[in-house]
Amino acid sequence: MARDDKPLLICDLTQSYSPNGGGGISTYLREKRNHVLARTDHRILQIVPGPEDRIVENGRSIWVEIGAEPVRGSPNYRFIMRTKKVREVLEHYRPDIIESLCPWVLPWTAINHRRKFPETTLVAGYRTDFPNAHVYRVGKEIAGERIASIARWLIMGYAEITYREFDRVYTLGEDAKSMLGTRKIDRVDVLELGVDLSQFDPSKRDPEFRQRMGLGGTDGPLLIYAGRIDNEKRADRLVEMMKRLPPELGAGLVMVGDGKLRDRLVAETAGMPVAFPGFMSNREELATALASSDIYVSAMADETFGVSIVEAQASALPVVGVASGAMPARVPPGLGLLGPVDDADTMARNVLEIWNSNHDAIGAAARNHVVNRYSWDRTFYRLFNEIYPVALAHTRQRNRGPSSGWQTRPASELLRETV
Q: Over its length of 419 residues, how does the chain's per-residue pLDDT go in tens digits?
């Protein structure tokens, strides 16, 4: 338990939620809620964007959706701008811990709530290398290297100001922790994520999957990618890789997900053995897709952890990716091949090398690696028994006294429309 005197109310606060179950944070929210309800006596409050304001209380679980507009080009995601409504929810429930899971807007909503209620403990998950992924790499393509570098420097200043406000910060890898250290953000831990090993398992393989994807005419390696089909994930590089594979190889590619590039890539790959099944909201369906494929491919350069990579490895797939971000940590030698960022030629050669080697043995080694290292039980043991207690201690030190009790307003007042 994070604190031994009473159960806690723990709040997750994020923009990065999709009702279709896609994305690492959506998976984390689901697994964390399951852990809290099954393994602890705490309560959990999860605040996410939705089509309209909605609160569902079910025992110790409180699910709150704040009405928000869809993100242009990514209709499965929404972005909360109505921070007053978020503050109302926080003031009503008065959580002991707020865990902020994304970098934009909502961290400062949590910080401002803590300023009003200083007994609140703030924990931040630094889960996205947003100065690089959201600012530098996008800015470089639009405005060039100099402007992009200036923009990244400014956003790093924003990150420093923001995350130094938190009682504790966790990253998903040592590189991100070291980077934050250069900005004098020093209350930082590393938290590795997990995978449901019973769900993502090679036994879920379906011999009819290739046919169902419309790729029955291929008899070579079936490649698969699962994630947003957008610029941040560099999904278009996977299409470039497919163009460089020899036709006689008989390779097929399944791109699971949705995003800003999907329509363009569907048109661009007309006549090619590439399938776009969209979001797979059923996790069992995704597990079947991974287990029924041969090689997982990703061109993402700024992964901070890579849940989709670990799920693919749990499904006994070798990985072909890029030597950047967290991918080298997820794909050590012997479990796949990594090449330079944006190098479709090398990625195609690596696919050929994996396929022409003992790819089944590589996949089995990847499965064993995940079984021995990644589990949600391990993730949440560290969060609740190591990270949260240190954050709570910092709050007590900051306030020089114990936290006060909850003070709430009637629930009937909570959903009164405000903007």
A: 444 458 999 999 999 898 865 568 988 999 999 999 999 999 999 999 999 999 999 999 999 999 999 988 677 789 999 999 999 999 999 999 999 999 999 999 999 999 999 999 999 999 888 888 778 777 877 888 899 899 889 999 999 999 999 999 999 989 899 999 999 999 999 999 999 999 999 999 999 999 999 998 889 999 999 998 988 899 999 999 999 999 999 999 999 998 889 999 999 999 999 999 998 878 899 999 999 999 999 999 888 888 899 999 999 999 999 999 889 999 999 999 999 999 999 999 999 999 999 999 999 999 999 999 999 999 999 999 999 999 999 999 999 855 444 333 343 343 333 32
CATH number of the domain that residue 355 is part of:
3.40.50.2000
Q: Is the pTM of this model over 0.85?
A: no
Q: Are residues 64 and 97 in the same domain?
A: yes
- Count of structural domains within the chain: 2
- Domain containing residue 220: 202-373
Residue 393 inside a domain? The answer is yes
Contacts 24+ apart (CB under 8 A), 171-175: 171/125, 171/126, 171/127, 171/304, 172/125, 172/126, 172/127, 172/304, 172/305, 172/326, 173/304, 173/305, 173/326, 173/329, 174/329, 175/325, 175/326, 175/329
